[in-house]
Amino acid sequence: MTGMQIVREETRRMLRGIVPLTLIAFGAFLLAGCDPLRVGVSLLLGAAYSIVLFRMIGRSAAKAVLFPEAQAIRIVRRGYLFRYVLTGLAVFAAIKAPFIHPLAAVLPLFFPKIVLLWYNVVRRKGG
User: Angle formed by the axes of helices 36-64 and 69-96, to 10°?
Assistant: First the structure.
């Protein structure tokens, strides 16, 4: 299996974990009395951005293993810096844009960590 095939497979698995978390978050925001359209769009944008970030990490890692160590380290660091700046801009835009609910847009950025933790716990218990 090639590196990019692994990235695609893991991205699909991540998507299967992020979708339920997004729906749960949407329900929680609705129960809190937030505007459904604004929250829904914000959650979808945040979840899509989380998936894109996860895929970018995988692509960077898959690319880095094809190069010598010193060059691979530079590739990974450059990718990390780019994603860090991009995330900062996305958070800034979520705060400044009047049609985006900031919390609903930023919350999905934590979903990949939750999904990875969940899969790790389930795998250890034999699931």
Answer: 170
Q: What is the pTM of this model?
A: 0.88
What is the total residue count of the chain?
A: 127
Question: What is the mean pLDDT of the segment spanning 108-116?
Answer: 94
In the block, residue with structure tokens 């998936």: 51
56 half-sphere exposure, CB direction, 13 A CA radius = 18
Q: Is the dihedral of CA 119, 39, 100, 103 positive or negative?
A: negative
* Beta-carbon contacts of residue 38 (< 8 Å; ≥ 6 apart): 99, 100, 101, 104
- pLDDT tens track for 45-96: 999 999 999 999 999 999 999 899 999 999 999 999 999 999 999 999 999 9
User: How many other CB atoms are found less than 10 A from the CB of residue 25?
Assistant: 20
Other CB atoms closer than 10 Å to residue 107's CB: what's the count? 20
